[in-house]
Fold this sequence. Notes:
38% of the residues lie in helices and 16% in strands. It is an alpha/beta fold.
Amino acid sequence: MRTVIVDANNLFISNFLVNGSLTENGQPCGGINGFLKQLISIISLLKPFKTIVVWDGSGGAINKRSVFKEYKAGRKPIIGSHYSFGQEDDAKKNLQWQMKIAQDIIELLPICQLNISNCEADDVISYIALNKDFYKMDSCIISSTDKDFFQLAAPKVGIYNAITKKLITEQSILAENNIHPRNWLFAKTLCGDKSDNINGIPRMGFKT
């Protein structure tokens, strides 16, 4: 039985940033609109037996910051460039409002929705993908644009990019990057990850 695991924050925020939809009273709602449309598209295309939507839990990165306090430090605020927010707080409140509505709608659908306190979505998704037998899955596809999930690619684990509409496999990662998925974490450790504020070895990159 195929299961699709959706990186909800990844899908929602990508739509919040680019979808300029407004409600009748002019309230930005592009995150909700685009998220739900893409979720429907993902399910229609991949036809899973079960769909699991995973959000970042409250205090999501607290465990990682207890190990590395500079984790994700310096990230810019998430503000859709098409929205005319007066202040950063306005953007944050709207983002939270839209996300809450999206979660409420998912609760009404035959979809499993997870939100684990003190855990980021990628941690929960990885746990589920690595315990397929426990969750009674023959195979699973992780829907996300986050390349960190490449390390999980295996014969029965794929990654679907909803932006490019491309299914990424163990073989395609190896062919395009000359790195096997089981070595992806090692490669990222050497090269670093700017988005997570993790420095690699100076002058070492994926091409060098």
